[in-house]
Amino acid sequence: MPARTLLEAPERWLRIAVAHECGHFQRRWISLFARSELARLHEEVQADRVALQLTGATLDELDAAVRAIAQFEPGWDEDTAAAYLGLRRQLLRTTPD
Protein backbone atom coordinates (compact mmCIF):
# COMPACT_ATOMS: atom_id res chain seq x y z
CA MET A 1 0.00 0.00 0.00
CA PRO A 2 1.48 3.37 -0.94
CA ALA A 3 2.51 5.45 2.08
CA ARG A 4 0.56 8.43 0.76
CA THR A 5 -2.62 6.36 1.00
CA LEU A 6 -2.09 5.97 4.74
CA LEU A 7 -1.97 9.73 5.10
CA GLU A 8 -4.79 10.75 2.78
CA ALA A 9 -7.36 7.98 2.35
CA PRO A 10 -10.54 8.00 4.45
CA GLU A 11 -10.45 5.75 7.51
CA ARG A 12 -13.20 3.46 6.15
CA TRP A 13 -11.17 2.68 3.06
CA LEU A 14 -8.07 2.08 5.15
CA ARG A 15 -9.96 -0.43 7.29
CA ILE A 16 -11.09 -2.28 4.16
CA ALA A 17 -7.55 -2.25 2.75
CA VAL A 18 -6.03 -3.54 6.00
CA ALA A 19 -8.67 -6.29 6.20
CA HIS A 20 -7.83 -7.23 2.60
CA GLU A 21 -4.15 -7.48 3.52
CA CYS A 22 -5.11 -9.66 6.51
CA GLY A 23 -6.79 -11.95 4.00
CA HIS A 24 -3.46 -12.34 2.23
CA PHE A 25 -1.73 -13.02 5.52
CA GLN A 26 -4.19 -15.80 6.37
CA ARG A 27 -3.31 -17.44 3.05
CA ARG A 28 0.33 -16.32 2.94
CA TRP A 29 1.84 -19.59 1.73
CA ILE A 30 -0.74 -20.07 -0.99
CA SER A 31 -0.37 -16.42 -2.01
CA LEU A 32 3.40 -16.65 -2.02
CA PHE A 33 3.39 -19.49 -4.53
CA ALA A 34 0.68 -18.14 -6.85
CA ARG A 35 2.62 -18.24 -10.08
CA SER A 36 0.14 -17.42 -12.83
CA GLU A 37 -1.76 -14.17 -13.29
CA LEU A 38 -5.04 -16.05 -12.80
CA ALA A 39 -3.75 -17.60 -9.55
CA ARG A 40 -2.68 -14.16 -8.28
CA LEU A 41 -6.06 -12.69 -9.18
CA HIS A 42 -7.78 -15.58 -7.41
CA GLU A 43 -5.75 -14.74 -4.29
CA GLU A 44 -6.89 -11.11 -4.57
CA VAL A 45 -10.50 -12.29 -4.69
CA GLN A 46 -9.99 -14.46 -1.62
CA ALA A 47 -8.49 -11.49 0.23
CA ASP A 48 -11.45 -9.38 -0.93
CA ARG A 49 -13.82 -11.91 0.64
CA VAL A 50 -11.98 -11.60 3.94
CA ALA A 51 -12.17 -7.81 3.75
CA LEU A 52 -15.90 -7.93 3.05
CA GLN A 53 -16.46 -10.33 5.93
CA LEU A 54 -14.29 -8.50 8.49
CA THR A 55 -15.56 -5.02 7.71
CA GLY A 56 -19.12 -5.61 6.55
CA ALA A 57 -18.23 -3.55 3.48
CA THR A 58 -20.30 -3.56 0.32
CA LEU A 59 -18.78 -4.26 -3.08
CA ASP A 60 -19.13 -0.55 -3.85
CA GLU A 61 -17.10 0.31 -0.74
CA LEU A 62 -14.49 -2.27 -1.69
CA ASP A 63 -14.26 -0.76 -5.17
CA ALA A 64 -13.94 2.74 -3.69
CA ALA A 65 -11.10 1.59 -1.44
CA VAL A 66 -9.27 -0.03 -4.36
CA ARG A 67 -9.74 3.12 -6.47
CA ALA A 68 -8.47 5.33 -3.63
CA ILE A 69 -5.34 3.25 -3.26
CA ALA A 70 -4.82 2.87 -7.02
CA GLN A 71 -4.76 6.63 -7.54
CA PHE A 72 -1.43 6.68 -5.68
CA GLU A 73 0.04 3.85 -7.77
CA PRO A 74 2.08 4.79 -10.82
CA GLY A 75 0.65 3.55 -14.09
CA TRP A 76 -2.96 3.26 -12.92
CA ASP A 77 -5.58 5.30 -14.71
CA GLU A 78 -9.36 5.17 -14.61
CA ASP A 79 -9.62 2.69 -17.50
CA THR A 80 -7.11 0.31 -15.89
CA ALA A 81 -8.88 0.53 -12.53
CA ALA A 82 -12.32 -0.02 -14.11
CA ALA A 83 -11.15 -3.11 -16.01
CA TYR A 84 -9.43 -4.55 -12.94
CA LEU A 85 -12.41 -3.93 -10.67
CA GLY A 86 -14.82 -5.38 -13.23
CA LEU A 87 -12.80 -8.58 -13.43
CA ARG A 88 -12.54 -8.85 -9.63
CA ARG A 89 -16.29 -8.35 -9.24
CA GLN A 90 -16.95 -11.04 -11.83
CA LEU A 91 -14.61 -13.45 -10.04
CA LEU A 92 -16.18 -12.62 -6.66
CA ARG A 93 -19.55 -13.69 -8.06
CA THR A 94 -18.36 -16.80 -9.89
CA THR A 95 -15.59 -18.43 -7.84
CA PRO A 96 -16.21 -20.56 -4.76
CA ASP A 97 -14.80 -19.57 -1.37
SS class:
mainly alpha
**Low-pLDDT windows of residues:** none
Total strands: the figure is: 0
Task: Estimate the global geometry from the Cα principal axes.
Answer: globular
Strand content is under 5%
Mean pLDDT rating:
83
- What Rg, in angstroms, do the CA atoms define? 13 Å
Distance between the termini: 25 Å
Largest sheet: none
Q: What string, H for helix and E for strand, traces the elements in order?
A: HHHHHH
Descriptive notes:
- This protein is 77% helix and 0% strand.
- The chain is built from 6 helices and no strands.
- The longest helix has 19 residues.
- It is globular and about 30 Å long.
- The mean pLDDT is 83.
Task: Provide the descriptors you would attach to this structure in a database record.
97 residues, 0% strand, mainly alpha, 6 helices, single chain, globular
